[in-house]
Write a structure and sequence with these properties.
The chain has about 190 residues and is α/β, with parallel strands linked by helices. It is about 50% helix and about 10% strand. It has helices at about 10-25, 35-50, 50-55, 60-80, 95-100, 115-120, 140-155, 170-185; strands spanning about 85-90, 105-110, 130-135, 160. A 4-stranded parallel sheet has the order 3-2-1-4, with helices on one face. The longest helix has 19 residues, at about 60-80. It is globular.
Length: about 190
């Protein structure tokens, strides 16, 4: 397993995909993610295996529960009229492919260019269940982030912003600034 340690923030996306694949294989899985194993690949499996407490059956529970809870929150928001989901730090998330979504739902995944490019190559032949857009963006670049939020805010009525892939990597100050930027976006409802 040497050489598969986490070297940058994007490596965690591969590890989380591997952990979702582990959950998917369970007979009584909380969710099914048929693309997780393909996205994780050897890289994700090796990273996850290098953290035995995460990849072992009892350790994977936190990722499984987090995924299932966020799925439920998104579904509840859609049931209340959300027309756009913005997933910040989307990583290798596959919700647009595995969740039952309204065909007209706008789903925007935002992440570093390298992870978006990898995901686009891997999922080229897959069809999402909604209108999927991917945006290559370093969310720490405030002016780029604010331009993006402004553009989305003017083209959507009821926006839900998912931050499960971002907040753990931001400082408290960065998170507060991100929250302010999200709240300033037209169409976001608290």
């Amino acid at each position: 397993m040497a050489g598969w340690e986490i070297r940058d923030i994007s490596d965690t996306a591969f590890m989380l995909a591997a952990l979702r694949a582990i959950e998917t294989r369970r007979r009584d899985a909380l969710f099914r993610d048929p693309l997780a194993e393909e996205l994780a690949g050897t890289r994700g499996q090796s990273i996850a295996a290098s953290f035995p407490r995460w990849s072992a059956a009892p350790g994977n529970w936190s990722v499984a529960i987090r995924t299932a809870v966020v799925d439920e929150l998104i579904q509840a928001a859609i049931n209340r009229g959300a027309d756009t989901i913005v997933n910040l730090g989307a990583g290798l998330d596959t919700r647009p492919y595995r969740m039952t979504l309204p065909i007209g739902m706008r789903w925007i995944e935002v992440d570093y260019p390298s992870i978006i490019e990898f995901k686009e190559r891997r999922l080229l032949s897959k069809i999402p269940g909604c209108k999927l857009e991917r945006v290559k963006l370093d969310l720490r670049k405030l002016s780029d982030r604010r331009r993006f939020f402004s553009r989305v805010g003017t083209s959507s009525q009821h926006i839900v912003v998912v931050t499960e892939g971002v907040v753990p990597y931001f400082t408290v100050e960065e998170t507060a600034l991100l929250a302010d930027d999200v709240r300033s976006m037209r169409g976001v409802r608290a």
